[in-house]
Each structure stands twice: as structure tokens, then as C-alpha cells.
Amino acid sequence: MRRRLFRVVPTSGRTAAGPKEGISRRHDPCLPVASFAADKPVSIVLVHGAFVDGSGWQEVFNILLAALKKLCVKPVGVSTDKCESCLRYCFLSGVEMMSRTNLISRRSFCLCCAAASASAATGGWLSPREAYAEARGVVSLVRDSAAVSPIVAHQLRGSISVLEGSGGNIAVLTGPDGNLLVDAGIGVSRTHVTEALDKLSADPVTHLINTHWHFDHADGNAWLGALGAKITAHENTRKYLSQVQRVEDYDYNFLPLPIDGLPSDVFANEHAIKVNRASVGMKYYGSAHTDSDISVTFAEADIVHVGDTYWNGLYPFIDYSTGGSIDGMIAASDANLAATTDKTIIIPGHGKPASNRAELQEFRDMLVAVRENVAKLKKQGRSRDETVAAKPTATFDAKWGNSVIDPGFFTRLVYQGV
Ligand SMILES: [Zn+2]
């Protein structure tokens, strides 16, 4: 029998309750929560919560949400305010239980305080180490890799460079107004990104633009925003970064960023700013890789960062959880081709960071061909697994299929959208 880290107990009379209460009734999907009267608030007790003190806390949160889901309990509000008692992270300002909303106090959900109250109950529950290991997924692996990756700077044209090595490619425009970044990478790369920026310019980062909300492009918002960078993005990016956001295909729940890391300057369709004497234009794609993607164009230098609408030499991820689709990806590729010439330097979200229109055309043609192959199989009535087995990407795999988005993963993503 699997052991669990979490139990749910009624707020009133919270005790070091035995394993018969709450989630410890184990593996009953959609367990009737009769013992938690639906109009009464609940609190969450974390037996070993005190270790939530560093990089592991997001993983713990994921386990917590998974446990709640099995009880048909859905969190509806989240806070990353600090707890007045212990000054560590507290979250969940309310839960929706059996489709009713119950507001509860934040302190009921304080990980470390709750842990102390339940520390007596340990038998049969996951240890922190076990829980942490269980929660490792694609996202954690990407994060771990970023923590140790060197950051490589490539000078492109004029005062524009690109940094490679922290999640998505980061464009940098230097000059007297301070550095402008397009995307922020992953927070754990802060030291390496800072070193790389210091070599380009002694000035601080004063502007940051997010191409979309994904963590490998916006996680670094937290430290850059705290240092004073003004953050600009599409309005959906702000929305997704402000709330718990689940990405189904990563099996991961992303926590909201702290206020400092949220874009303060958002727009719906187009936006333009002048920084370091450069005209910086931003344009919304509509539904593409997500529904928060924008392109960022440096007009004078003829350089465009197209975010994750283009993965250079890699099958792309498509995030259906937040409005992405294969048809949107193809439409975005067509828009990128229309907006560029043979002289334009195109910065992809991932892959070799300085690309061009010919390579982009190849990416677009690959998307169209795979879409057609997958649609044909789906129309014949093939299931998703049968479609993967038929290898509709075979002729493209040697060039595009060598990353975490492997041929099977990409086929499943396309299948979902045709
Ligand atoms: Zn992305």
C-alpha cells in the first residue's frame, strides 16, 4: 500500500489524528468526504512539512494537490504570503470541496505550523526524501539541469546578444537605459545569468519582456522583478503567472509568482517601447504554443525573438492546458515567415539561438507534414497509441526528435489537436 505525506482533517479539533482520517483512507478516488461536512472548512496537515524550506517546496505542493484531487477537493485560492507565525511559505487561501467553496484562514494551511501540530503521526507516511523523489518529473529535471548549465552568450547584431543555457533563449539589448531582456530563464540559473550579463554590460536589467508564461521563460521574473526590472507581457501571461496553473502534459502544477515577478505592463494585441534608442515591438499571436505568446522585434537590428512558436531543430511542446494547438503553431509559423526576410535573425524559444528564415520554413513544413500524417491516421479511427505506433513522424525524427519532446510525445500532442 502506498504511503502518503498528507492527511486532511477538520479544522476544528485538529489533532494528531490516526490514519483513519482524511486522505489516509488511501486510494479511494473521489472518496465521499462525509466526515468533512461540506459546509465546514478543512485544513491540511502536513506530517513532514517543515522541510519545505527551499527548492523542494513546489514539488511538495504538487503532491498536496494530487492528494486533494483524490478527495474531490479543489483549491480555489492561493497565497504565497509568509506566515506570521513561522515566516515561511503558506498557501491556499481557500478550498472548494465537493463543488462548494469554503473559505478558511491562511494559517490553516501553513506547512510548517501544521507539521508541528501533527508531528506525532509518522508511521505509514512518506518521508520528505521519499516524497521529494516521487515528485520528480520533467519540470524538475529541466530545473536541475538549468542549475548546473553554463550560460553561453552569442553576440548577434548591434548591441543585441542572446544567452543560451537557462531554459528558453534569452535576448539581451544593452545600452544607457539599462539592459532589456526578452525572457528570464529559470530562477536557479540566476548566478550564471548574472555572470553572463556582467560580461556584456555593467548596467542593471531595467526591462524584461516575457514571450509567454512558461516557467523556463518566466521563472527568473522573481529575482529580476525584485531587483527593479519593469516586466512587460501579454495579459494572459500575467493571468497564468498569478494563479496556480496546471500543465497536463507535464503533470505539473505551477505556483503563482510573487508580486514582484508579475508583469506590471500588459497588453492585448500590440505594444511598442523605445529602449536604448531601439524600437522594440511586441505582437500577440493568438492561440499558438499557448494563448499567451508574443513576438518581440528589434526593428533597426532586424532581429525577432519568436518565443516558443519556433523550436530550432527540435519538436516543439504544445501546451493545450493554456490555449495552445498544432493549428495555432502552424499559423504562428506562417506569421513569422510573413514578418521576416532572408536577412532577419530569428531567435527561437529553444534550440540553436541564432536562426534564419530558411530554417524556420523547414520547421513550418515539418509541422504541416506531421499534422497531415496524424490527422489521416486519426480519421481512420486509430487511437492515440495506435497513431504513435504507426510512426507518423518517422521521416523527421533524425533531425527533430532528439530532445525531451521525443517522436511519441510530439505525435500525442499533434493527435490531441486534429
Ligand atoms: Zn513554452
Description:
The chain has 418 residues and is α/β, with parallel strands linked by helices. It contains 13 helices and 21 strands. The chain folds into 2 domains: 130 residues, no CATH class; 278 residues, Metallo-beta-lactamase, Chain A, CATH 3.60.15.10. The protein has a 7-stranded mixed sheet with strand order 6-7-8-9-10-11-14. A 5-stranded mixed sheet has the order 15-16-17-18-20, with no helix packed on it. Helix 9 runs antiparallel to helix 10. It is globular and about 60 Å long. The N terminus is likely disordered. The structure holds zinc ion (ZN).
Strand order of the largest sheet: 6-7-8-9-10-11-14
Q: Superfamily at the CATH H level of the largest domain?
A: Ribonuclease Z/Hydroxyacylglutathione hydrolase-like
CATH fold-level assignment of the largest domain: Metallo-beta-lactamase, Chain A
Give the helix level as a range of percent. Answer: 25-40%
Shape: globular
Level-1 CATH class name of the largest domain: Alpha Beta
Strand-residue proportion: 15-25%
Span between termini: 40 Å
Task: Briefly characterize the structure.
This protein has 13 helices and 21 strands. By secondary structure, the protein is an alpha/beta fold. Helix 9 (326-338) runs antiparallel to helix 10.
